[in-house]
Amino acid sequence: MSLKRIHHIAIICSDYKTSKRFYTDILGLQVLRETYREERRSYKLDLALNGEYLIELFSFPDPPKRISRPEAAGLRHLAFEVDDVAAERQRLMAEGLDVEPIRTDEFTGRQFTFFADPDGLPIELYEK
């Protein structure tokens, strides 16, 4: 096997309009393509970060709930690198998001914090 990099992350949301706003307006990801698939009653939103394809956001009618606490089995969280964790934390809190207090990574000495997307998926901001 010769893996090169992660191509994309697929996320299924329960409220497409709310999640689209969260990922584009609040997190600042750019829309590459938005497609409505009539046969599946589903949107597929391709999102990029700094011009690089990153996330596929899907909507499906009545998706089942999933346990998403950070210590549940499966995907633990998404992590985004930022220059200033404290400034980004303040910006997210001004948007009305509940953001955890800033912690320091015991191995790297870098700061990080967590918040959640509209469906409770944990998202981490990690200092560059």
UniProtKB/TrEMBL annotation:
<dbReference type="InterPro" id="IPR037478">
    <property type="entry name" value="YwkD-like_dom"/>
</dbReference>
<dbReference type="Pfam" id="PF00903">
    <property type="entry name" value="Glyoxalase"/>
</dbReference>
<dbReference type="InterPro" id="IPR029068">
    <property type="entry name" value="Glyas_Bleomycin-R_OHBP_Dase"/>
</dbReference>
<feature type="domain" description="VOC">
    <location>
        <begin position="5"/>
        <end position="128"/>
    </location>
</feature>
<dbReference type="InterPro" id="IPR051332">
    <property type="entry name" value="Fosfomycin_Res_Enzymes"/>
</dbReference>
<dbReference type="GO" id="GO:0046872">
    <property type="term" value="F:metal ion binding"/>
</dbReference>
<dbReference type="InterPro" id="IPR037523">
    <property type="entry name" value="VOC_core"/>
</dbReference>
<keyword id="KW-0479">Metal-binding</keyword>
<dbReference type="InterPro" id="IPR004360">
    <property type="entry name" value="Glyas_Fos-R_dOase_dom"/>
</dbReference>
<protein>
    <submittedName>
        <fullName>Glyoxylase I family protein</fullName>
    </submittedName>
</protein>
